[in-house]
Amino acid sequence: MQIDNSLTIAALKPKIQTLFELSGEKIRALEKRWDPANGTPVFTAAGLYTTRGWTEWTQGFQFGSALLQFDATSDPWFLGYARTKVQASMAPHLTHTGVHDHGFNNVSTYGNLLRLIQEGRSEASPGEIEAYRLALKCSGAVQASRWTTIADGRGFIYSFNGPHSLFADTIRSLRSLAVAHQLGHVLLTEADRRVSLLERLLQHASVTADFSVYYGEGRDFYDVRGRVAHESIFNVNDGSYRCPNSQQGYSPFSTWTRGLAWIILGYAEQLEFLNSLADSDLDSLGGRASIEGKLLRAGEATCDFYIDHTCQDGIPFWDTGAPGLPFLKNYLKKPSDPANDHEPVDSSAAAIAAQGLWRLGSYLRKFSRRHSDGRRYRQAALKVAATLFDTPYLSTDPAHEGLILHSIYHRPRGWDSIPAGRKIPCGESSMWGDYHARELALMLLREAEHLPELKFFNVGK
User: Fold this and answer.
1) What strands lie across the sheet with 241-245, from one edge to the other?
2) Secondary structure letter of residue 108 according to DSSP
3) Cys bridge to 260: 228, 254, 389, 443, which one at CB 3.0-4.6 A?
4) Which domains does the chain have, with CATH numbers?
5) What tens digit of pLDDT does each residue of 61-97 get?
6) Angle at 100 (CA atoms; ends 94, 106), nearest 5 degrees
7) 270-295 pLDDT, tens per residue?
8) 8 Å CB contact between 340 and 381
9) How far apart are CA 350 and CA 28, in angstroms?
10) Residue ranges of the alpha helices (H) in 119-173?
11) What's the predicted TM-score (pTM) here?
């Protein structure tokens, strides 16, 4: 990536305002057309949102997007719409024992609703507030119950693939455990054993840092600092680590860039959350210095890898080892080209990673006094945002229901739409890509307008 140190949030503000103007139109259009009987919208085909039966992990992004829209514009229609939909549709997600997606679905909805109330942006009755609090407590405990213990006694939240499977994605679902812990909740297991949600959060973050993230220390022949394995496989009989794997990437030994992006954002947000806790909360769990040191090491390594393995304008290809990349000569020294004939880019990875780059940069400036490193990450985030919030990535066509174009879902399975006359998927959007672009834009807008920082854990205690 070619970082532009002259970029400022003020210069991006007109693009952010345009994004939210388009965003509101697209949310309304989708609500008008979408039939809930068809399931949850996942990604677009020929510009229209469609569904894909795998797991219902994007419904929280659908309704959460309206809450972000309200936050940015104060238009009450979006708050009313989201509140009604959440109350009518999201309850099954709270006790969904089969997925690792609670942070995606429930913090994006119940969490945003409670945050807006806490920030004085929305009013609610005491009963409604308590319902949101109870929802988030349940969600965090259910997510934490998907637990595999490994050989050294630590453990992780296992993916929907089963108890052997640690996904990079799940680092951002730690939001559910963080919020539930903050609200005073614990997980009760057999014999009424009380399990700390904070302890499970930190163990999962630690195991992910050790097995999903590489540090250039010779762990295997493809050990490059900051590289991420989408999936890590463990033997459930003895808890031993077996090998890297990838479900949605090209190979276990290359980096699926959306998995990389989840890691970047997940660690940055957890570092912010840990700084809201007292030292005494962490003393019995390893101590602040050790815990934050491990999370920061993983966060910096992956941020650096993203910057080094991304096109000049900040948009990555869907996998850093994708087989068609050698045909794109010097692609890292050029702006991204979503219309190429060899490999698709993934704008959703960029939207997620940009927010993590900004948050980690802000963390370094505020808590580590590393202003130069912090500025580098923040300027990288602005570079990505400047690209995403403009053509050819920002969708300006009112007939297209997506907000951010050129998103990729599951390249190995061939789920992504390839337009007629083209060789690779392009021109389509995803519910998670659109949500995270809105979240990125809102985060930057709040800073531009000197408003409180956007934090998922601003939900009270």
Assistant:
1) 165-167, 231-234, 241-245
2) I
3) 228
4) 9-448 (1.50.10.10)
5) 999 999 999 999 999 999 999 999 999 999 999 999 9
6) 35
7) 999 999 999 999 999 999 999 999 99
8) no
9) 25
10) 126-144
11) 0.98
